[in-house]
């Protein structure tokens, strides 16, 4: 059950997994049916209870809001007034009022006629826009408008003023862009309740964007942007991207993304919340005209570092694109002719910097240099052999030890970014674009990256939103159930009552109850190992991967049997049995054999080590009205993700029975794999397995000592499964019980 993460509803996978500019939150497409699945306009007028908004700030806005003029126009609605209906997931429609409304203020639902179908229906006032273009009188700021040719919804942000904006309206749109228009270009909404519109915007960041914009609308901030400045703009979740300002119009700027593929150009407001705050008026990215035109300053070197880097790379590459080379030569000739005073020995790079500086904001700059910037940005990434150098500086301050965020955002902390294409790709810190997890795994291996393949996802099903902190702090009764014992914090949340989770000692390793059991558990004489040095990527050569498969074959694991029946190759069977990119898609009945301390492979990066590396996803312990304490995901989890182990005290079954006399045995789990699985190959065909006392399964009891694993609830249709995993001990009595997601799990969803 979701009690606190509700405000993420309504954000489609498409929206949050791709650029906000590609998928405007409430834009409406009347022409392209392909885009309809990304349209979001919430339909629910009672959404207020679900959404956290600072009430005071809204009241402030409403008090100042003078909507009398607009309301005087629309408070009376005659029969047959033409309306544009803008509804979620539907193309826009032209309807006519079915009933006259003399007091539109007090109604939220109106009756309209659909002339094409001759039917009538009720629509909320908020979704109806007057078909007549906006009249020429002054429409105040915060007026909700619909721009028909752009198919965008937005709010008026600036009224016409001869000095400020050359007598045009500035409209902020629901896709974070902004633009100037004449009054004829947009349509007025029947509902001009700013608060109601804001409450129905379900995309939290957009709501914050508008709140921020309108609260600060009367503070006039001087913006010092100039064409050619490089600023950082949030385009994808919390990721900032470098963009170049390519045009300025009063208080909006046109920015161009450095994407090699799309080079998207959009207009945004100079005070837009998507601009990185520290970068808004940053000296290091500002171009100024220096006093001495002869010596390039540090500032300029910074400003053009990206350009010179590209040049350097190009120069280093002997097979550089010939067309681009021609262009460079030609432009250098031009620069030379304009810079007679430069000595002939000066490098090309310095020349270009000097030229940029002296000609800033001249037609030469905008007409010749600027298109050249774009050419350079559009060059395909230059091929090189990737090595440690490709990630070294990007990972300088990165440590995967304590994971504070959604782990799937970690690559972005190391200068990776997403390429919004189909299929979705990752751009490496050295600007290669990789489309498959296999390629990424190879890249991580070649560059000895600190990142693990488990932090990468494929497909668009797994979203990067919402933030893991997206729930009400006042119901957080414990910051970390594990007291710092795990790599991630496990917050405890209760918005039902004053109950706290029961007292137990948090441990992360199985705890044998006496020395005899400890000796049996720690005996690893029978444990086999591999001698791989390639992160166990070549599974044909890895004894550990082969053991997982051979045990499954001996024990007739149904999935492996199926593959054998279809005569799949050994290589394919190995590739698909056990972990695939550190995920386990299907349970293996005979157990998974991870690499262990005897193996020669890398402790972190071996592809056959996962459970032993501990927690990496964020789960929350929360109280449910019906099921009691349970666990839920704080971010999306792809299928096959390792959650945690079930940890507790290790007892013999007799000791378990004894304990059950005096205390509840609901946390006791029998390690009964030994009963189901036959012995290894050398025992096969031998005597029947002894059934003496030694073979009684051991019991894990989580009542006194345990980890978060004790809180998983049972469900009829579980979205997780338990997998027996062997690490240090290959004794069938001592498997580790590891929990994995059986399906894709969405943020906020309970795991059981
Ligand atoms: Zn590289
Ligand atoms: Zn190996
Ligand atoms: Zn191994
Ligand atoms: Zn290994």
Automatic annotation (TrEMBL):
InterPro entries: Pre-SET_dom (IPR007728), SET_dom (IPR001214), SET_dom_sf (IPR046341), SETDB_methyltransferase (IPR051516). The keyword Acyltransferase does not apply. One of its GO terms (biological process) is heterochromatin organization. The keyword Nucleus applies. One of its GO terms (molecular function) is zinc ion binding. GO terms for cellular component: chromosome; nucleus. This is SET domain-containing protein.
């Amino acid at each position: 059950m979701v009690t606190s993460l509700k405000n993420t509803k309504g954000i489609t996978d498409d929206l949050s997994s791709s650029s906000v500019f590609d998928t405007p939150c409430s834009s409406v497409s009347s022409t392209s049916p392909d885009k309809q699945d990304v349209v979001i306009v919430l339909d629910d007028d009672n959404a207020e209870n679900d959404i956290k908004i600072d009430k005071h700030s809204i009241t402030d806005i409403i008090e100042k809001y003078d909507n009398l003029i607009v309301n005087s126009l629309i408070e009376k609605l005659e029969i047959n007034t033409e309306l544009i209906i803008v509804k979620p997931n539907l193309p826009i429609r032209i309807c006519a009022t079915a009933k006259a409304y003399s007091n539109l203020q007090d109604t939220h639902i109106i009756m309209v006629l659909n002339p094409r179908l001759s039917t009538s229906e009720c629509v909320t006032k908020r979704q109806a826009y007057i078909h007549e273009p906006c009249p020429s009188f002054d429409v105040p700021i915060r007026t909700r408008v619909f721009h028909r040719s752009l198919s965008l919804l937005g709010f008026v942000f600036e009224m016409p003023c001869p000095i400020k904006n050359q007598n045009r309206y500035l409209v902020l749109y629901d896709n974070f862009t902004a633009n100037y228009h004449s009054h004829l270009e947009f349509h007025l909404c029947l509902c001009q309740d700013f608060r109601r519109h804001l409450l129905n915007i379900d995309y939290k960041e957009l709501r914050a964007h508008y709140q921020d914009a309108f609260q600060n609308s009367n503070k006039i901030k001087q913006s010092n942007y100039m064409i050619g400045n490089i600023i950082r703009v949030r385009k994808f979740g919390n990721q900032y991207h470098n963009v170049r300002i390519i045009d300025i119009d009063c208080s909006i700027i046109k920015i161009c993304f450095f994407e090699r593929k799309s080079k998207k150009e959009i207009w945004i407001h100079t005070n837009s919340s998507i601009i990185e705050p520290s970068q808004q008026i940053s000296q290091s990215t500002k171009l100024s005209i220096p006093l001495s035109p002869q010596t390039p300053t540090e500032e300029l070197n910074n400003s053009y570092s990206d350009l010179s880097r590209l040049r350097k790379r190009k120069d280093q590459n002997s097979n550089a694109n010939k067309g681009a080379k021609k262009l460079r030569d030609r432009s250098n000739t031009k620069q030379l002719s304009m810079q007679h005073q430069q000595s002939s020995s000066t490098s090309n790079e310095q020349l270009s910097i000097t030229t940029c500086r002296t000609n800033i904001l001249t037609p030469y700059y905008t007409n010749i240099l600027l298109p050249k910037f774009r050419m350079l940005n559009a060059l395909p990434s230059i091929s090189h052999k990737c090595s440690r150098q490709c990630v070294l500086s990007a990972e300088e301050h990165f440590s995967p030890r304590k994971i504070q965020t959604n782990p799937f955002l970690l690559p972005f902390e190391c200068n990776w970014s997403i390429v919004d294409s189909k299929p979705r790709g990752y751009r490496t810190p050295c600007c290669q674009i990789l489309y498959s997890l296999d390629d990424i795994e190879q890249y991580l291996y070649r560059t000895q990256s600190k990142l693990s393949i488990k932090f990468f996802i494929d497909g668009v099903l797994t979203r990067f939103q919402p933030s893991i902190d997206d729930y009400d702090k006042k119901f957080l009764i414990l910051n970390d159930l594990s007291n710092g014992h795990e790599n991630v914090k496990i917050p405890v949340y209760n918005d039902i009552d004053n109950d706290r989770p029961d007292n137990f000692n948090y441990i992360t390793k199985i705890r044998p109850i006496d020395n005899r059991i400890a000796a049996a558990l720690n005996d690893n004489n029978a444990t086999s190992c591999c001698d791989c040095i390639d992160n166990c990527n070549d599974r044909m050569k890895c004894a550990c991967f082969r053991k997982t498969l051979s045990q499954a074959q001996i024990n007739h694991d149904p999935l492996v049997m199926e593959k054998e029946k279809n005569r799949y190759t050994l290589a394919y069977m190995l590739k698909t049995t056990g972990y695939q990119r550190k995920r386990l898609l299907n349970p293996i009945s005979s157990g998974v054999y991870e690499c262990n301390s005897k193996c020669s492979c890398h402790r972190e990066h071996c592809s056959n080590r996962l459970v032993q590396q501990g927690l990496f996803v964020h789960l929350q312990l929360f109280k449910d009205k019906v099921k009691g304490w349970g666990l839920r995901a704080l971010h999306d989890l792809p299928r096959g993700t390792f959650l945690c182990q079930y940890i507790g005290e290790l007892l013999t079954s007799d000791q378990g029975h004894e304990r059950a006399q005096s205390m509840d045995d609901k946390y006791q789990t029998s390690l009964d794999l030994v009963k189901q699985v036959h012995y290894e190959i050398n025992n096969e065909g031998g005597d029947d397995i002894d059934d003496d006392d030694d073979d009684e399964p051991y019991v894990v009891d989580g009542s006194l000592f345990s980890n978060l694993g004790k809180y998983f609830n049972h469900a009829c249709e579980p979205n997780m499964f338990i997998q027996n995993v062997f690490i240090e001990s290959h004794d069938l009595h001592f498997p580790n019980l590891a929990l994995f997601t059986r399906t894709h799990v969405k943020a906020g969803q309970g795991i059981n």
